[in-house]
């Protein structure tokens, strides 16, 4: 994640500091990164603010990532916190070109939590990891007194091996931008569920482990950059890729895949689906000569059937993202200040 230029003015942490937008970028840059000096063990370190980092072991580099999950509610249409925790860590490895090998699972659970629900959550983590050939090999469990925690929190870390390292900063002018499926499903479905009308939309979370989809793209070749659009959604991820690459990105509104139910629910809830978290999608930058073949390969996988080329990298508007609207106009897609749907991952 890139570090925002504006200064942090708040004196205390707010929910917006964890929402994936500009306020969170400032928290990371001014409070966290600024106070960690020993921050690199391989070619990619903390200051790079990528989806993971690398650890040098001899001539090889292992990709390492970690994330914590505070979803509310813990169970929702299409999954639960355990599925999202495993898939999220797998996807952070995958978008760096790393085959997921092993995960850790640290669980903090509130006194009185249902053991049956805990079993369901752990089984979901195990099934998700096994889908891509990864194993959950270590972890930790803590219990806090009733009222001290909102049910359950999970931290997962993962390691993977990359034959070809991929960064989120590698875009070049002319590259095509692919998204591997419909945008906004996860955050919109959770908010609909919270508001009590999910039965009207039929929406489900898109939470899924993407390694097999991304491997299909890597096998074709020509991949220059990748990122998964979680907190802050497509808008935040594209802006981060443009900023780090020093190039502009132009996307066409009509080519961004959106379910009709997401459009309808977004209008009803007053949110922008481009700013809503996804948990089973990736953004892929690819050289134009292989873009068609990569798209076909992605569409041939379980989680890539709705993939689309949504735009390209341009030599103008460096560090910015331009949206060509359905009416023929153009506007900037800005980095969100925060996530319109808190606590979705």
Structure description:
- This protein is of the alpha+beta class and 345 residues long.
- The protein has two domains: 50-162, 60s Ribosomal Protein L30, Chain: A; 176-332, Phosphoribosyl-aminoimidazole Synthetase, Chain A, domain 2 (Alpha-Beta Complex).
- It has nine helices and 14 strands.
- It has helices at 22-32, 81-94, 115-131, 185-195, 198-201, 211-220, 233-245, 260-269, 288-299, and strands at residues 53-57, 60-69, 75-76, 79-80, 98-110, 135-144, 152-162, 176-179, 223-227, 248-252, 283-286, 308-314, 321-324, 330-332.
- A seven-stranded mixed beta sheet has the order 9-11-8-12-10-13-14.
- A hairpin with a 2-residue loop joins strand 1 and strand 2 (60-69).
- The chain starts with 21 loop residues before the first helix and ends in a 13-residue tail after the last strand.
- The relative contact order is 0.17.
- The model is unreliable at 1-6 (pLDDT under 50).
State the gist of this model:
The protein is α+β, with helices and mostly antiparallel strands. It is 30% helix and 25% strand.
SSE topology:
Layout: H1 22-32, E1 53-57, E2 60-69, E3 75-76, E4 79-80, H2 81-94, E5 98-110, H3 115-131, E6 135-144, E7 152-162, E8 176-179, H4 185-195, H5 198-201, H6 211-220, E9 223-227, H7 233-245, E10 248-252, H8 260-269, E11 283-286, H9 288-299, E12 308-314, E13 321-324, E14 330-332
Parallel strand pairs: 5-6, 10-13
Antiparallel strand pairs: 1-2, 2-7, 3-4, 5-7, 8-11, 8-12, 9-11, 10-12, 13-14
Helix pairs in contact: 2-3, 4-8, 6-9
Q: Could you list some keywords that capture this structure?
A:
single chain; Phosphoribosyl-aminoimidazole Synthetase, Chain A, domain 2; seven-stranded mixed beta sheet; 345 residues; globular; 9 helices; 2 domains; disordered N terminus; 60s Ribosomal Protein L30, Chain: A; alpha+beta; 30% helix; five-stranded mixed beta sheet
């Amino acid at each position: 994640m890139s570090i925002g230029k504006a200064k942090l003015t708040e004196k205390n942490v707010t929910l917006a500091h964890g929402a994936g937008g500009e306020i969170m970028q400032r928290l990371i840059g001014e409070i966290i990164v600024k106070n960690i000096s020993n921050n690199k063990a391989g070619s990619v370190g903390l200051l790079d603010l990528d989806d993971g980092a690398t650890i040098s072991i001899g001539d090889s580099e292992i990709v390492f990532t970690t994330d914590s999950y505070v979803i509310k509610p813990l169970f929702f249409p299409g999954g639960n916190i355990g599925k999202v925790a495993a898939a999220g860590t797998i996807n952070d490895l995958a978008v760096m070109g790393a085959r997921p090998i092993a995960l850790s699972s640290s669980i903090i659970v509130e006194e009185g939590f249902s053991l049956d629900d805990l079993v369901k959550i752990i089984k979901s983590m195990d099934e998700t990891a096994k889908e891509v050939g990864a194993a959950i090999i270590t972890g930790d469990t803590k219990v806090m007194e009733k009222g001290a925690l909102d049910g359950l929190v999970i931290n997962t870390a993962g390691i993977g091996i990359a034959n070809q390292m991929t960064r989120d900063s590698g875009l070049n002018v002319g590259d095509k931008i692919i998204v591997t499926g419909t945008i906004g499903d996860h955050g919109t479905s959770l908010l609909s569920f919270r508001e009590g009308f999910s039965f009207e939309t039929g929406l489900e979370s898109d939470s899924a482990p993407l390694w097999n989809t991304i491997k299909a793209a890597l096998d074709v070749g020509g991949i220059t950059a990748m990122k998964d659009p979680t907190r802050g959604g497509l808008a935040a991820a594209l802006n981060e890729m443009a900023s780090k690459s020093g190039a502009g990105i132009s996307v066409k509104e009509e080519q961004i895949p959106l379910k009709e139910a997401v459009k309808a629910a977004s209008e009803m809830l007053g949110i922008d689906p481009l700013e809503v978290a996804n948990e089973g999608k990736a953004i892929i930058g690819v050289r134009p000569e292989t873009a068609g073949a990569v798209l076909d390969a992605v569409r041939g996988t379980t989680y890539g059937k709705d993939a689309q080329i949504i735009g390209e990298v341009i030599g103008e508007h460096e560090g910015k993202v331009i949206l060509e609207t359905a009416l023929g106009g153009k506007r900037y897609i800005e980095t969100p200040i925060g996530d319109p749907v808190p606590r979705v991952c």
